[in-house]
Amino acid sequence: MQMKLNKILSGLSLFMGLFGHTCVADEYLVAVRAKSGVADAIQQWQPTVDYLTDRVSAHTFTLKPVVSLKEINMLAAKGEFDFVITNPASYIELKQQYGASALVALNNRRADTAQRYFGSVIFTHAKNDDIISLTDLKDKRVMAVSDVAFGGWRVAWAEMLENGINPQHDFSELLFADGLQDEVVYAVRDGLADVGVVRTDQLERMESAGKIDLRYFRILNNKDIDGFPFFLSTPLYPEWTFVSLKSTVTTGEIKQALLDLPEAGVVAHAGKYVGWIEPLDYTAVEELLRKLEVGSFEN
Length: 299
Hints:
Elements: H1 2-23, E1 26-33, H2 38-55, E2 59-66, H3 69-77, E3 83-86, H4 88-98, E4 101-110, E5 113-115, E6 117-118, E7 120-125, E8 141-144, H5 150-162, H6 167-170, E9 173-176, H7 181-189, E10 195-199, H8 202-208, E11 217-220, E12 237-238, E13 241-244, H9 251-259, H10 266-271, E14 273-277, H11 283-292
Parallel strand pairs: 1-2, 1-3, 8-9, 8-10
Antiparallel strand pairs: 3-13, 4-5, 4-13, 4-14, 6-12, 7-10, 7-11
């Protein structure tokens, strides 16, 4: 009798253990490139992460803002996050090194338009009468977002090479702003740098927020592309993407939840985007990185 009771208790314990395991929510860590600082990243992306927790059954999602792209690579190497919202060059590097996959692409909301592509804007202070074109960058102090920033440097770098300017030799000084876009703009405004590089729509957003007056800036190599209403000095490349670093049973559910996210809802409004779409073609991004011989393509 006692033996039968022990078996029953043992079986019940096993059942409760299995049942308890299935009811415990797995936690996924979502890193995000905090291009305007940690506080802004939390304000912009926390609602998106909370939305995933609400929509993906028995799982919780936690946001981890990361200012530095280099730190994103370091954390990925240690397996310290499961997903990341980042720029397309960062995605390509994570794909090359860790087999990451793009779940969805960002359909950005900028000036009440939907934008799937972005680039770099190269600019100077309006008072710099000796800087009119990219060829005038020789012997100038140039500041960019960081040496690994895509729209904040590498896209502009490639465009400079196309115009006969080699940043590795031709500048009097090349400065970086530790990953913060605003600091580049302020440096040019305040005369700490002659020329700045940021991602497209950065200048317009800063003026809209009352941080700068665009009348004090001159755009170099300005391009006019139908459907793109922002200052632009380079070709356009695919927008940011939501990247998975590990295959999970819920990956498909996560992707569908993002694709289903309401365009006019509070989550998209906080995120400053229209929604999420199927991944784009990132071939041009990979070709640019190969041309510059950076990241995973460094010789």
